[in-house]
Amino acid sequence: MTRKKHGADASSSSPSPQERAPQTGARLETGRNRTSRNGAVAFTIIVFAAVCALVLACAQALAGGIGLAALVIAVVVGILAASSVHIVMEWERAVVMRFGRFNRVAGPGLVFTWPVIEFYTVRIDQRVAATYFGAEETLTSDLVPVNVDAVVFWMVFSPKKAATEVEDYVSAVAWMAQATLRAAIGRASLAEVACRRDQLDAELKEVLEAKLDGWGIDVIDVEVRDIVVPRELQPAMAAGAIAARERDARMTLAEAEADISDMLKDASASYAGDPEAMRLRTMHLAYESVKQSGGTLVIPSAFSEGFVPEGGEKA
């Protein structure tokens, strides 16, 4: 069976867990207007008013007047008509129940239901939703309390499951994500949580996908936004990090010195059997020194005599 993955519900009648749970970061506000259902509500009101007016007009034509009974009948018929004709937005799906049992998923567009015997319990928003959640003062495996703030992007691919398998799937996603985050932090050390954030994201996504699939919800992505260590632990952790960096620097310097000593040994072995090569190397070093300092180099005559062949004349 192919999943229809379109989006997820971003609203709920009950307070969301991210509003009740303590957070380490603030929610991002984009300033962009949300879509509304004002047009669908206006359509329902218009249907109600039109049917009421039609019933009252019929009563006026048949009875020659509008009495209390006609008003009551007009209101009842208007309510039945308004509850039978619905507008479902493009991003929504209506879960229609008949006598309390699941009947069909309807929408988008104009949806008709039988009065009294059919009704739809919920409109499932199938757009992508972002749920913010956090884990405050959660202990890592090395017993360090951290505050972690994250966000999960999810969507409903099965309106039927989302309506029938879980009472409030929006809150359930937030609570499940928070519990999964706490469990993942408890299995890792502070260094793993801080340095292996991508692995933590992947682990959270895999676990949430497995748990939310039965509710008709698909997890698109999980992102850890912030990891905060308590202020009183920050100086000790900073000192430990500095000590670790100094140790690494000293080890690197020692390794470089060892490499240099090996190369010097090889060079000394090469120059040991060739005195003229040694003199040329010495002159080259002297030339480089003079070139960099811009001074004058005085070469002793005994040094230059080393380049004259035996029995030959000086140039």
Description:
This protein is of the alpha+beta class. It has three domains: 36-88 and 92-124, no CATH class; 129-229, Band 7 domain (Tetrahydropterin Synthase, Chain A, 2-Layer Sandwich), CATH 3.30.479; 236-294. Helices cover 49% and strands 20% of the residues. It is built from ten helices and eight strands. It has helices at residues 17-20, 38-63, 68-82, 159-164, 169-186, 190-195, 197-212, 234-272, 275-293, 301-305, and strands spanning 85-88, 92-98, 101-106, 109-112, 118-125, 129-139, 145-156, 217-228. The strands form three sheets. The chain has a three-stranded antiparallel β-sheet with strand order 3-2-5. A three-stranded antiparallel β-sheet has the order 6-7-8. Strands 1-4 form a two-stranded antiparallel ribbon. Strand 6 and strand 7 form a beta hairpin. Helix 5 packs across helix 7. The longest helix is centred in the last third of the chain and has 39 residues, at 234-272. The protein is rod-shaped. The termini are far apart. Mean pLDDT is 79; it is low at 1-31.
